[in-house]
Amino acid sequence: MDTDQSMVAGASWTPRDVLSGAYDGSRGDGVSLVRLELSGIAGDATRLSELLVAVQLLRRKGCMVEYDLDLFGGSPRFATVRDNVAMLRAIVADGTTTARFTVNPLVGECSPWVASFRERVAPAVQPWLSRLSAPLAEAWLEVMMGERMLLGMTGVAAHRIALQRLTLRSNTELLNLVSDSAREFELSGDTCLLDDELVSPRVGALIESFLALRNRFQPDRLLTG
H-type helices in 150-195, by residue range? Predict the structure, then answer.
């Protein structure tokens, strides 16, 4: 199904904006796509809790959540990676939002181990981000639009459940890969967890599951049939 951009409302808000009611999530003519501002949240337990509640509130209102996050953004340290992974877990906790991030070139001085880890993790996660996380995000837009147009259709409801399970699995495996490999690299200066022979089969299996799931969900066919 082609994305109807007239059904998408773009916005950029902090979690505190959402919790204060500055953004109420109301939009009767389509899916609201809300971009969250994440600066200053990583490493702050109070703001991390606010983020978790804000995302839950937006999802209950039927909004899709978008965000930009550089895995090494801010101070390039292993602690930065841990804090950013914790923030991502708060955003994607319920399996209706995909875990997405960038691994940009490091800015400023950092430990050689951090620089080496960045060189290892970037190619390891790229297939996951481009071939799985991005298509999963598109699939969620499709299913939410399908729900708007096909209220009460069993096919859409069943697809949502299956998509949520797959998204949760993908998010968990990706974030565990980053956090576990970062922990090993910080302790020893190396890790085998990012080796292609270990990562590729995991990504490949998830991609196959996603393609099979998507092939079974045909919104256009539901509309005409």
Answer: 154-188
Closest C-alpha among 30, 21, 176, 148 to residue 92: 176
3-state DSSP helix/strand/coil % of the chain, to nearest 5: 60, 10, 30
Is the torsion defined by CA of 180, 140, 147, 157 positive or negative?
Answer: negative
Beta strands in the chain (DSSP E): 8-13, 31-36, 64-67
pTM of the model: 0.86
pLDDT reported for residue 73: 84
- Report in angstroms the alpha-carbon separations of 77 from 111, 190, 206: 7, 15, 30
Strand partners, 64: 33
Question: So what's the pLDDT on residue 3?
Answer: 40
Q: Are 149 and 223 in contact (CB under 8 A)?
A: yes
Burial 60-95 (b: 16+ CB within 10 A, else e): eeebbbbbebbbbbbebebebbbbbbbbbbbbbeeb
Q: Identify the segments of the chain with pLDDT beneath 50.
A: 1-10, 29, 222-225
Which residues does 10 contact at the CB level (< 8 Å), separation at least 6?
33, 35
Residue 70 pairs in a beta bridge with 102
Q: Which helix (H) or strand (E) holds 209?
A: helix 196-216
